[in-house]
Design goal:
This protein has 228 residues and is an all-alpha fold. Helices cover 83% and strands 0% of the residues. Helix 2 packs antiparallel against helix 3. The radius of gyration is 31 Å and the shape is rod-shaped.
Length: 228
């Protein structure tokens, strides 16, 4: 193929690409365009906006859930640090008891050490649960934000439809497929995040069960007060 023909084909392809890009960029609605639309015709737009506001409220709640989960993880880690210190102290006390040769003291400090280790295991399990819960909270927030984006795209599509129905020339060159494609893209992201959230919620449930079991073990390891 001659060089001039190759260059000609490349030039044509570039023109089509530029036109396609321009069309994609043109599919954006300016809400000020709706000022001339009769109020009665705006019902679909108002309904879509109401759903968008609801999605934004849910996103705000999901964001607050992330903050709460972060705080719970901080508390769990602080409890874990305390439990580690208590195990170290109990081990030192137990070693001192063994050096004393006092059998009763050894048995008492052994029980205290076992209990402190059980407390440490419970604290570790609590951290694991808090971390799993935070991960799920973050994904839930991402999902809520994705829903907002989906609704924003639906609002824009409804605006386009209303403007088109009212003969607005500014949307004449826009294609409905472009708006539909945006909606579908956001919905696909929602579906992916929903699947992630389901897995993470299951992991959170399993971690909570382990924490519950560890607390039961802790209660069972409570040393029996000496009788006297």
């Amino acid at each position: 193929m001659k060089r001039w023909m190759i260059l000609h084909i490349i030039a044509i392809a570039a023109v089509f690409s530029a036109c396609s890009h321009a069309n994609t960029q043109s599919a954006n609605i300016n809400e000020q365009w709706l000022a001339r639309v009769p109020q009665a015709d705006l019902a679909p737009v108002n309904q879509a906006r109401a759903v968008e506001r609801q999605a934004e409220d849910e996103a705000n709640r999901a964001k607050a859930g992330v903050t709460d989960a972060n705080n719970q993880l901080d508390i769990a880690k602080a409890d874990q640090d305390t439990a580690k210190s208590q195990v170290a102290a109990a081990e030192a006390q137990f070693e001192a008891a063994k050096d004393s040769g006092d059998q009763a003291r050894v048995q008492e400090d052994q029980a205290a050490l076992d209990h402190s280790k059980a407390a440490k295991e419970a604290a570790d399990a609590k951290v694991d649960y808090a971390e799993a819960n935070l991960k799920a909270a973050n994904t839930n927030y991402d999902l809520a934000k994705a829903r907002v984006q989906t609704q924003k795209s639906k609002v824009e599509y409804s605006e386009y439809q209303v403007l088109q129905q009212n003969g607005d020339t500014r949307v004449r060159d826009m294609q409905p497929e472009e708006f539909q494609s945006r909606i579908q893209s956001h919905q696909a992201e929602e579906s992916r995040l929903k699947a992630d959230l389901t897995r993470e919620q299951q992991a959170t449930t399993a971690a909570r069960q382990k924490w519950t079991e560890a607390r039961s073990n802790l209660q069972a390891s409570q040393p029996t007060p000496p009788t006297g």
